[in-house]
Amino acid sequence: MRVLVTGSAGYVGAVLVRSLELSGHDVAGVDTQFFRDALVADEKSGARVRPGDVRRFEVSDLRDVDAVVDLAALCNDPLGGLNPSVTFEVNHLAAVRTARLARQAGVSRFVFSSSCSIYGLNSRHPLTESDPVRPLTPYAEAKHLAEQDIARLADGDFSPTFLRNATAYGPSPSFRLDLVVNYQTALAVTRKEVRLRDDGLAWRPFVHVEDLCAAVRAVLEASREIVHNQVFNVGPSEDCHRIREIAELVVAGVPGAELKATKEAQHDARSYRIDDAKIRQAIPGLIWRKRVPNGISELVDFYQSIGLSEEDLASTRFDRLATVIGHQRAGRLNSRLYWAAGCDPSGNHS
Ligand SMILES: NC(=O)c1ccc[n+]([C@@H]2O[C@H](COP(=O)([O-])OP(=O)(O)OC[C@H]3O[C@@H](n4cnc5c(N)ncnc54)[C@H](O)[C@@H]3O)[C@@H](O)[C@H]2O)c1
After folding, report:
1. How far, in Å, CA of 335 to CA of 328, rounded?
2. 103 CA to centre of ligand 1 in angstroms
3. Is ligand 1 within 6 A of the CB of residue 320?
4. Is 2-329 CATH 3.40.50.720?
5. Residue nearest to atom 29 of ligand 1 (CA)
6. What is the pLDDT of residues 267-312, one digit of tens each?
């Protein structure tokens, strides 16, 4: 299958491109490359990855492609809150436009990378895809709007699928420390401590980044009737944890690390658990291979291999929001997040 991955240079994209190639797919990628400094490994990939902004896509960019995996986005609540109108422009409008151009170009499959964060606040029971959503942030709201508008494009020749991903963790060549398991494990490795930012009672679902990519692959390889215009939660039901439990798992997985006192008064309003039955029943070949404790021990080895230091935790390098703010302050990105003249890896500028 000829697959175009948008956001191919990001945390998920860098793992996905390799895993699709290993499965024999012909992979191309597009990424505006906001996070070049977060690269920790040479990508030994034959994929044709080119710099480019999805907001500037033309129909010709999507020709000769069987499937699009749409990952390009401003990826998390803090970055999504920096300038909500740009978040809607990229995460909602550009995603819908990419899907429309893909349909026009004759692409038959479109996998949209959504997020469980659209469930917002509902932790009474594990949520299925038909439970009501309650997006609480611009990031989550934009993902929800994109799901709804792309679903309307589905027809006999165009099959979108919506993956509501849990919070990812684990090593990637384009690394992020602004993800709970990655960050807490980094704190434990470098400072021998784990700290909660609030009471730690909020629930979150988690998924290893390789399992997330396995779900994308499984959806691409599944027959059309199974995935046509379907929404799937992505992540094992068993790996929904309160944030405090993640801290405890990290302490158990990193010798010498301790859990430090917390700011008990603060509470995260976002809290949700997911039910993964739908994707497991639809695609029985998809198996979650990793759990959070596996990820923590992999991360310990990974941090050693890349020489992660305390300075890395304080730097902007692995933090998506801080990196974007750094580009803006240095005049490399403008307020709409277009590269300034001379800074755009594609040679374009706004
Ligand atoms: N990582 C997670 O925990 C998680 C959880 C749920 C959903 N998701 C979704 O998965 C996808 C990938 O997330 P990630 O963790 O790899 O994030 P990331 O920030 O590492 O990667 C996103 C990539 O998109 C690129 N990008 C942003 N705007 C672009 C634009 N206008 N044009 C072209 N490229 C652009 C960035 O340069 C970056 O490389 C996103 O859609 C995200 O919402 C991620």
Report:
1. 7
2. 22
3. yes
4. yes
5. 72
6. 788 889 999 999 999 999 999 999 999 999 999 999 999 999 999 9
